[in-house]
């Protein structure tokens, strides 16, 4: 008897949640589940900025896949996806080629370079555990070098390019970390600059002006310099040049963090799928419109609501999509009814370091300060709970006390 | 009434111990004690290799001067010595010039470059807290970079040039640290190489062959590759070239630690004193033979015993010299008898990581393994005790348990 081969690409939140649901619901005599991922661990993307600033150890952010997935039920392959061949129902990996009957694509995101590779190639970006850990060590290494050179200010200037939520959240964490770094490396705080460059006229432009202003003030109170209307023109290993009001400013720095947004994994495009901004359009069953045996989850899925508006991707959305996908795969075996993806946006939360934040709810109510920081924590904890139950929550969850 | 101005240069072990003794014994109505140092802390040079490997935090090695010295009794000036003018009885610092009646020179050591600045300028050396901390962070930074590049083995090859006690002790600590670094950065130990290059035919040539061999075996058992008869020819930021048996070997590495010995601070030479190998000859009262108001302690002091042999410098020796200097300065006020410096060599101890070591006593008996490691610990602890009493010992002392 031929077992149906279900291949899940990527241990991103959507991929993981699909596997978690399928390992419980499917009859493994009729189906084989294969999960393919570059590493043997999953990580929570919403915490990477903390790992990069060094305020949270990366082992608090990542989870060995074997802790969540029953490897007797799901076959885990550690390999990198090279291309998908939908006509042959094959996925080419670096070390082998895998056939599938049902494919779930959840390959996550990469950093958006907005068409300026010459700017971003000398900048760091927060995209995964490896890059976040590198940023942390790069910052520390510059502090360590300072007293071994003659007053090189480039070592202690840290530039964040982009005032969206990634840039702001990272700036908040770094502002929290700087005093600790100053103690560790015997450097006066006075000499350390954290400079956030934003090309538009305000940071967090997707938020209400009073919330964005609150966030800016919170960061500035902790020493972050925010420069709006500043367009990055050049980024070299030892300096950055930005233009503001027609004038060019050269900033000596050995650390530029590119926080200019994210885009879906380009493998969909390079594999020849029909895409819009790198995303594949899906039905509300989360199924590709081109290939009915392909499901897409998370960043790569383009799903429009009744009024034609695309859902904005979030970890929360991806988890719900995964539940729909797992249900619909199971329904395919039983010929039961398919589920449709329906969700309301939950509002937005941005943390500003450990003890501050802003949030806006779907009903329009807004929160500042520790309440918002607490909401962000709740959200992270809820994620752990849904993925791995109480035990994962207790192991990785955040239980800061606010006072 | 003119107070006698006693100026101590350097918070090295000898300088610190002189200040500690003088602040107790002198009548501060007739004498003023000034201690000049680059930093506001003192550190234990015998632990720097542990800080550099990352097995001991640098705060365990250094002590704020104010914790040991009563700053109501001793005037501490944080500044760098530029030159000494013995004819004018002046010391020129970067920010001011200081007059003295009595001068104690204890300026410590720097790394010996053995006439090859072109080799050592791309290498790291373990000379103070700043350089040790930089090495630690440089090693970590290379580990962090590894997964962000395409298999660059230079990141994970660590070369130690010099198989004397500094090189061996550092190799021992690094061997202890590597497994921890591998866990932290998700790297298989297999990929990490620690390579120790020694130009002569044996490491630790000042030790008996069986002890040197024991040390080599201990390191090799923990993965250190020891190459004897290897002369370093070139050291670049991304590789090292050494010659062995007439053949040149190129080793890709971004980390070369130069462990080729130390030499006294060159300020004695550049100030125009008569020196031998950078050291100033002193009488057995620890007084300069040229200028009777100048005392010299530690690395910079050249003192010969009755048979004309120079005492080899060590922290232990410097502490004893300082006690003699403090006594003789006090005696100068009271016109009492001067003390002479007399000491026996105590034997030598070399640690090989946390739990192993070798030691040879003055009576010729030898020790291996945890006993020798324990003796090294005892020696470090004794130092803290002599300098700052029980409270400093409890604060900074090492109390590893051996089993």
From TrEMBL, chains A, B:
It holds the Pfam family Pyr_redox_2. GO terms for molecular function: NAD(P)H dehydrogenase (quinone) activity. Keywords: FAD, Flavoprotein, Oxidoreductase. Belongs to the NADH dehydrogenase family. InterPro entries: FAD/NAD-bd_sf (IPR036188), FAD/NAD-binding_dom (IPR023753), NADH-Q_oxidoreductase (IPR051169). It comes from the Bacteria. This is NAD(P)/FAD-dependent oxidoreductase. The keyword Flavoprotein applies.
